Amino acid sequence: MEALFQDIQYLKGIGPKRSRQFKRLGVDNVFDLLWYVPRAYFNRGHPDPIKSLKPGEPAAVRAIVKGTHASRSRRGLHIFKALIQDETGLLTAVWFNQPFLNSMINTGQELFISGKVRAAQGLMELNVSEYEILDASSQHIDVLPVYGLTEGLSQKTIRGLILNTLNEYLHHYPDILSPELKQEYDLCDIGFAFHNLHFPQDGTAYLRARKRLALEELLLFQFSLRQEQNKLQVDSYVMHLPQNNLLQRLRDKLPFVLTSAQARVLEEIYEDMRAPRQMNRLLQGDVGSGKTVVAALSMAGAVASGYQAAIMAPTEILAEQHYQSLQQMFQAHGTEVARLTGSTSAGERRSILEALASGEIDILAGTHALIQDEVQFKRLGLAVIDEQHRFGVKQRAALGFKGEAPDLLVMTATPIPRTLALTLYGDLSVSIIDQMPPGRKKVETRFVQNRNADRVYRFIARKIKEEAAQAYIVCPLVEESEKQDLVAAINLYEELRQGIFSHLEVGLIHGRLKALEKEQIMHSFKAGKIKVLVSTTVIEVGVDVRAASIMVVMHAERFGLSQLHQLRGRVGRGEKQSYCFLLGDPHTEDGCKRLMIMENTDDGFKLAQHDLLLRGAGEFWGVKQHGLNQLKVADLLKDLKLMELSQILVQELGKVKADWMKVYIERKFKKSQDIVNN
Ligand code: ADP
Ligand code: MG
What we know:
single chain, alpha/beta, CATH 2.40.50.140, Rossmann fold, 7-stranded parallel β-sheet, 6-stranded parallel β-sheet, 23 helices, disordered C terminus, binds adenosine-5'-diphosphate, binds magnesium ion
C-alpha cells in the first residue's frame, strides 16, 4: 500500500520539474494520479458529420487537413487556421495563440477536434478547444480521456503517465468490497473501475466504472462522517416526561392548538427522549410551519423530567427572540430561562456559567457561544439547534458532547431529500412538519425592476396609512463584503428617511450594532413604533414579528431561492394580506428564473429542490462544511441510489476495512481541508 503514496517525483519519466507541474494540479502521488478524474472524453468513434454542425453548438469532428494558414491579428494575437474535410463537407478549424501549431499540423494529417461552432462568412468555423493528431499509434483507441491541464503539461504527457500508473501500480490498490458483495450489488472490481474511468473500453464499461468509483467515494465519505458521529452513538438519559405538570400546563396555555403535524413530530421527539439512546433527530419544516413551539415543548419535556435544555441559534437576534418567547412561556412555572451570546457581559456570563453548573438555570438560549468549553451544564438533557444549515457537523457534535450525551434536535427550514439528509447527517432520524398553521394567506410575491422601486415605496406608504402595515426592507451583501453591505443599507436608510418616508418612523438594523441596540430596535419594531425597518441580512432567519406584512428584498437576484424564501417567511404571519417585493435587475438566465419561480411557488420544499438543481448540492450546502467538493465522481443529486447502498455497506465495511478507510479518508477528504472543519 505504501507504493500508492509514493511521491510522484520518483515515477518513471518524472523529474523535479514535471513533479512540480503535477503538484500544481493537486497530484502529489500515485493515489492522487489514479483519482485524477478526466474532465471529459474524446469519443473518436462518434464524430459529428461536418454537414450537421450548427452555429453556437459544441461539436467534435474527425477530418483530413486540406491546408493551413498562420497569421497574426492587428493586436498581435497568433491565429492558426486549418481547412479540414470529411465525407460530408468542409470546415475551418481555428486556434488562438498557439504559434507552435504551424510546425505540428500539416496537410494530409487526420485530426480529431472539438470545440464550439460559429458561422463565419458563409463557411462554418470551429473554435478548437481540444485537438488530437491521429497517427498510427493512437488509431485503435476510440475514447480518450481529457484532463485538466496546467502550463507545461500536455494531454499526451498526462495520459501516458496515467496509463503507466494503471499498469504498474493499480494492483496495490485495495479492493474494499468482497467478491460476494460485488456480485450481490453488481459492482465491478476496483482495478477494472480505474482502468475504465481513464480509458473506457466502451460506454457500458465506463458506466460500470463510474458506478463503482462513485460508490467508493460515497462509502468513504459516509465512513468519515460516521467516525465523527460514532462518538454520538451512545447511551443517554431516559426521560419520563411526566404528563401531570409543567408539560400539560404549558400546552393548555398555548394561544393556539397545535397542528396535527406539530403534534405528530412532537410525539416522535418524545418517544426518542424516553428511549435510552441519544436522540439525533432532524426536524424539517417550511418557514412559518411552527418549529419553535415544537422545540419549546420538547425542552419543556426535558425540564419536566428534571433535566436542563438548551437552544442554539445562528444569530444574536434570533437567540434573543427565542429567549424572550421561552421566558414568556415558562415564567409563570418557576422555570429559569437564561441567554448567552457573544455580547453577554463578562460578569453576567460568569454568573450564568455558575448557575448552569449548579442546575439553577433550566433553559439556556444562545448563539454558538453556547458550545464553548467553559459552558458546563449540570444535567443537560436536550440540546436544540435552530436553523441547522447555518452550522456545521462539528458544532452539532460539540453540542452533543455537552454533559452526558444530551438528546439532540436539529431544525431546518431548508429541507433536503431524506436520502441526502441521511448521507450528510449519517444516523439522523428525520421528522417533517408538512402542514401550515391554519389561516395563513399566501404572500403575494412580485418581481419588480429597480427603476420601479418608487412604486413599491409608494405602495408601502399607502398600506401603512390605510391598515397600519409594517415593512422590512432588506439589503443583501454587496460585493461579498460586510462593510459594503452596511454602506448600502445605511444609504438606503438615509434616502428613505429623508425622502418618501420622512413622515414615518424608519429604523436601521445590522450586524455591527451592539446587542442592546439591536434588541431595542427589534422591540420598537415589534411594538409597532418603527414602521419601516431597513436591514442587512441579519433578519434573514427565524425572526417573528406578526404585524409585519410587507417584505422588500433589494438586489433579489443575488440571493438563492431558499434564502429568498426565508426572507419572505418573515411576513404572512398575521391576519393581513402580506406582500413580498423582489427588486432587482437579473442579468443572467438563472437569476430571472429564480425570481419567476419565487413569484409562482410558496412551498419551501419545492423551492429547496429547485435550489439544489439550480445551484448544485455543493453550493447549496456550503461545500466546505462537508468536504463534498472532494467527491470527484459521485453526484449528490443523481446518485441517490448509490447513497442508499453506501449507507448499507458502510456498516459492515467499517468493521473489516477500517484501517484502509482511515488512510484513504486522510488522503482524499482531509487533504485540502478538514472535513468537519466549520
Ligand atoms: P418556523 O417554523 O419558521 O420557525 P415559527 O416557529 O417562528 O416558524 O412559527 C411561526 C408563527 O406561527 C409564530 O408566530 C407562531 O406563534 C405561530 N404558530 C405556530 N404554531 C401555530 C399553530 N399551531 N397555530 C397557529 N399559529 C401557530
Ligand atoms: Mg424558526
